[in-house]
Amino acid sequence: MAKRSSLSIRIVEGKNLPAKDITGSSDPYCIVKVDNEPIIRTATVWKTLCPFWGEEYQVHLPPTFHSVAFYVMDEDALSRDDVIGKVCLTRDTLAAHPKGFSGWAHLTEVDPDEEVQGEIHLRLEVVLGTRARRLRCSVLEARDLAPKDRNGASDPFVRVRYNGRTQETSIVKKSCYPRWNETFEFELEEGAAEALCVEAWDWDLVSRNDFLGKVAFNVQRLWAAQREEGWFRLQPDQSKSRREEGHLGSLQLEVRLRDETVLPSSCYQPLVQLLCREVKLGTQGPGQLISLIEETTSTECRQEVATTMLKLFLGQGLAKDFLDLLFQLELSRTSEANTLFRSNSLASKSMESFLKVAGMRYLHGVLGPIIDRVFEEKKYVELDPSKVEVKDVGCSGLHRPQTEAEVLEQSAQTVRAHLGALLSALGRSVRACPAVVRATFRQLFRRVRERFPSPQDENVPFIAVTSFLCLRFISPAILAPKLFHLRERHADARTSRTLLLLAKAVQNVGNMDTPASRAKEAWMEPLQPTVRQGVAQLKEFITKLVDIQEKDELDLQRALSLQAPPVKEGPLFIHRTKGKGPLTSSSFKKLHFSLTTEALSFAKTPISKCVNELNQWLSALRKVCINNTGLLGSYHPGIFRGDKWSCCHQRDKTDLGCDKTRSWVTLQEWNDPLDHDLEAQLIYRHLLGVEAALREKHRQLSTGLEAGRGPTGPGEAPGDPLVELLQVLGDLQEAHRSSSAGSPPSEPSRILELQT
Fold first, then answer.
1. In terms of domains, do 608 and 618 share one?
2. Fewer Cβ atoms within 10 Å of its own Cβ: the N or the C terminal residue of the chain?
3. CA proximity to 97, closest of 161, 8, 157, 13
């Protein structure tokens, strides 16, 4: 049994932010921290006080985390970025909203005295002195203190206060992992209500010292305990009064905490085996559990259910069979070809998730160079005459203003060039398309052609493929490349318009240039020759895609299985530690890394085009290392330079690490390794939520059976798989109850309590 926590985070937008630049605007972005550890940085939205981000993240983290904080920052090119404000949500707040926290939250001021982090190692004793009892406080060390100085470290010392007396440790220069090993004693009076306060400070020569955090103890409880030693989390100083909320603007967030108790694999085997049996039987199965699950799943959670079930069957090697079953179910209830896969059915949502899970790397290879070109060129592109702004275009080669006709013609040429490049890249990518994606599209093509065999529907199988490939995969990635990890930043207004027009053109090609799609926007007419040519290219591509034989697929899968697939690849900047003086561009070296489940390698030249931020690299490394049985519990975040560690100043090179190894806070991505037990637990939890609807469905099936055919044996009843499912759910409920009852009790509260 394991406890697992995850956060679903959507950073929507901000409003009424204060202006931080002399232009009367700001360049806002968000940083997300879990217990003061930065894990997410959104893109910067330039020159606005009402930014829209719309970025979504899934974060896996330990169940013991305390809070998640959202900092809104203003990016500056020439100086340190300004902090606008923050929103902090505690674990208790999130736990009080089972369906998630959603809405606007006022930004609050970021007080340096509240921005604390790290832990301090203390030993506290009540000892018998010559005349009275004395309170002995040994300040041993601290770790992960907040860096307060420009050099990225602090000069920490500790101040111990009790009963009007104050004593201080020595100052440790340039370290966030100081070691003092100093002891202080205070005369202890029985019955004294005074608290013992241990404060960490950063020493500054020319300005006031910076507060690093404090720990306060109830001396009466310490008197009873006599001795206590451990690591204590530093707390902020919240004694200051706050200004009225709202003057810093607001942030719209959607945050949902999910805690799961994952049972051993054997507990989920009956559920997994039952669902796999139903998928293998397909539409021939008597109960069609997959169809019943779709019927009882609400629209709000259909995407989540689709993604979870897809990952489960992907891990069982049945993703193609699962999707094929959904295709058949959708086709069986579709009478009009033009409505096929147009709704948000389980089939549509599952196929969307499938393409993101299995085809994201393929998408980057095909679409990445075109997106990069659009971002780099930053051309003014507009096809709608009512929206042309000639003044924004600039002059022609003869230094005269361009006419509206010239702007429209050049814009059409630009979009045609991008569309042509994309279709050409797509046409060359048949073999690069993942084998499981090709096999799934082949099955989809075959099923649709069987369902609509008439000559007037000859384009329907092609449109079925393009409805997913173009309309639900490539076009959304063109519209929002940041959300598909194609770019590090959101597009500016000019680039966004180019991407929108290109996405519209791709949609017209995907719709096979139907009259309905042409009639919507007549001003797209200049693209029609390229669109018609693109339709032919796309049909040729799909024909080749679905024509590869099973033997070719197996040979390709065997070839791919011999190589460890990359987990992450892309550029990283490495700091040259031998450089002296202020950090400059020459202090860094750019190398291109590739991380697989087997090795971390690098080269001087790009291995592939992929944009990665530092937190994504840390997340990927943690995922690869999480099953390492030899993973160290602590490490040195610095380097051994000269005769000591730069982080904690220890002079023994083999000394144990001074900071804890953080191996649990990771970002979820589409190419994450599958977690079969967690996927099964998520499916169980969903089915448990719709159990009442499933029982009602069983009652209806049983009533209809008795009225129509009379009693039959249990093996012949259409409701039998449903009965099995309900029994499996009951067994899992009992397993969860037993695990809760038999699990070790939560850690008792320590005798030594923090003073509140």
1. yes
2. C
3. 8
Q: Give the type of residue at 563.
A: Q
Q: How confident is the model at residue 630 (pLDDT cuts 50, 70, 90)?
A: confident
The DSSP 8-state label assigned to residue 525 in this structure reads G
The tens digit of pLDDT for each residue in 241-251 reads 555 566 899 99
Residue 674's pLDDT is what? 75
Domain harbouring 554, CATH code:
1.10.506.10
Task: Note the pLDDT tens digit of each residue in 472-509.
Answer: 999 999 998 988 888 877 888 889 999 999 999 999 99
Residue 621 burial (C-beta neighbours within 10 Å; 0-12, 13-18, 19+): middle
- Distance of alpha carbon 647 from alpha carbon 575, whole angstroms: 16
Element (H, E) at 38: strand 37-41
3-state secondary structure 730-746: HHHHHHHHHHHHHCCCC
Spatial CB neighbours of 692, under 8 Å, sequence gap ≥ 6: none
In the chain, % of residues over pLDDT 70: 83
CA distances from 642 to 178, 474, 488, 645 (A): 18, 53, 38, 8
Q: Are residues 382 and 448 in the same domain?
A: yes
Instruction: Identify whether residues 382 and 485 lie together within a single domain.
Output: yes
What is the structure's pLDDT at 516?
60
Q: List the one residue out of 97, 106, 101, 138 whose CA is nearest residue 120.
A: 138
Q: How far apart are CA 129 and CA 443, in angstroms?
A: 84
In this structure, are residues 617 and 572 in contact, taking their beta carbons and an 8 Å threshold? Answer: yes
The pair of structure tokens assigned to 224 is 């009873």
The CATH number of the domain where 43 resides is what? 2.60.40.150
Q: What is the residue range of 689's domain?
A: 263-333+677-756
Q: What is the pLDDT of residue 705?
A: 57
Q: Which residues, 6+ apart, have CB-to-CB distance to 418 below 8 Å?
A: 370, 373, 374, 498, 502
Look at residue 682 in the predicted model and tell me its pLDDT. 92
* Residue 721: how many other CB atoms lie within 10 Å: 20
Asked if residue 565 and residue 555 are part of one domain, the reply reads: no
Residue owning tokens 């832990």: 119
| The two three-digit tokens of residue 471, written as one number | 């309309």
Dihedral sign computed on CA atoms, order 189, 194, 195, 200: negative
Check: CB of residue 258 under 8 Å from CB of residue 304. no
Q: What is the mean pLDDT of residues 446-462?
A: 91
Domain-embedded: residue 95? yes
Contact 306, 314 (CB under 8 A): no
Question: For 669-700, how does the pLDDT look when each residue is reduced to its tens digit (9 = 90+)?
Answer: 776 777 888 899 999 999 999 888 888 888 87
- Please write the tens of the pLDDT for every residue from 411-438: 999 999 999 999 999 999 998 998 889 9
- Residue 144 in any domain: the answer is yes
Number of independent structural domains in the chain: 5
Burial class (CB in 10 A: 0-12, 13-18, 19+), 323: buried
Pair 645, 537 in one domain:
no
